[in-house]
Amino acid sequence: MLVTGGAGFIGSHLAEELVDRGREVVVADDFSRGSLDNVRHLEDDVELRAVDLTTREGCLRAVEGVDHVFHLAASVGGIHYIQRENVGGLTPSVLMNQHMLEAARTTDVDRFLFASSACIYRQQHDSLNLFTEDQAIPANPHSTYGWAKVLGEVACDAYQEDCDIATSSVRIFNCYGPRESLDPDSSHVIPSLCRKVIEADDGDSIELFGDGTQERGFIYVTDLVRGMIDVIEKKGDGEAINLGNSRDVVSMNELAERIIAISGKDLDIEHDRSKPTGTDKYACDMTRINEELDWRPEVRLDDGLRRVYEWAEDELDVQREVVAADGGTP
């Protein structure tokens, strides 16, 4: 089984789960965002292929000898990245998606799973959006990143219709967990908030983008990869399906408060209304995946947040030690 982007956050957890299930795993990555550290513990159990998936040649090397493809590689980042990138959010992903599907077709791959995104949806109304799969059409995403995911879904459906390959797409809603980027310029909201809280002194404050009323439903990474494996094994009809968690929907203010509570610090929350906030409210309607695959998330938000916070503390300690050893400052 091939995991593209397998040295990244989600990809490394997926590769780990596949190894635990006794599968033969290939990880393809160019390591521009993914890290060898994420898969170092798997180096005896997976085959690493350092390839450029924006090229036909790189994709053909990646799929050699595999029968199942989990295509996670994409040009991606947090809200800062998605809202400032146009060509960067579109072109690399579109090239990877098309080259990967062609490579899978020409090498007779049996099953192909495309990692799509909740970013294909556009806000529909003022109450909490529990998006159903049919609300993706007509398409009108906020970003070129979202458009790249729309095009990927369309391509997967076309290859399922016209070629001998079973494809599926999963629309991922707000996944979080250990190994996410902690880079302030590109991190998603949960690792970003964990870093802010960890680095704040007791009695200080942390900053949120917007007024903090934006609401999200978050899915822990182990639940996500379990759902992805279920989808590639049980679907293959070319259709897209939501993969997320609408049981634990919280505002950004409440999310920050929960992380602060984990830290044990006394911190205030300040708001910067000039910064990008994304869609005000969204989570996924889980009806289809519940009914078709009998899949449900298992990790509750408070448990997941504590795991990420403790991981982030350890990771930032290591980073500070490395910087200190080099004679610099964090």
Short description:
The chain is an alpha/beta fold and 330 residues long.
Give the SSE map.
Elements: E1 2-4, H1 9-20, E2 25-29, H2 36-39, E3 46-50, H3 56-63, E4 68-71, H4 79-84, H5 87-106, E5 111-117, E6 130-131, H6 144-162, E7 166-172, E8 175-176, H7 189-199, E9 205-209, E10 215-217, E11 219-220, H8 221-234, E12 237-243, E13 249-251, H9 252-263, E14 268-272, E15 281-284, H10 287-293, H11 301-325
Parallel strand pairs: 1-2, 1-4, 2-3, 4-5, 5-7, 6-15, 7-12, 8-11, 9-14, 10-15
Antiparallel strand pairs: 10-13
Whole-number radius of gyration?
19 Å
The CATH class designation of the largest domain is Alpha Beta
How many structural units, i.e. domains? 2
* CATH superfamily (homologous) name of the largest domain: NAD(P)-binding Rossmann-like Domain
Main beta-sheet strand count, sense and barrel state: 7 strands, parallel
Q: Indicate the multimeric state.
A: single chain
Amino- and carboxy-terminal Cα gap: 39 Å
Description:
With 330 residues, the protein is of the alpha/beta class. The chain folds into 2 domains: 2-176 and 218-243, Rossmann fold (3-Layer(aba) Sandwich); 189-216 and 248-281 and 299-324, UDP-galactose 4-epimerase, domain 1 (Alpha-Beta Complex), CATH 3.90.25. It has helices spanning 9-20, 36-39, 56-63, 79-84, 87-106, 144-162, 189-199, 221-234, 252-263, 287-293, 301-325; strands spanning 2-4, 25-29, 46-50, 68-71, 111-117, 130-131, 166-172, 175-176, 205-209, 215-217, 219-220, 237-243, 249-251, 268-272, 281-284. A 7-stranded parallel beta sheet has the order 3-2-1-4-5-7-12, with helices on both faces. α1 links the parallel β1 (2-4) and β2 (25-29). α3 crosses α5 and α7 packs across α9. The longest helix has 25 residues, at 301-325. The chain is globular. The chain starts with a strand and ends in a 5-residue tail after the last helix. The mean pLDDT is 91.
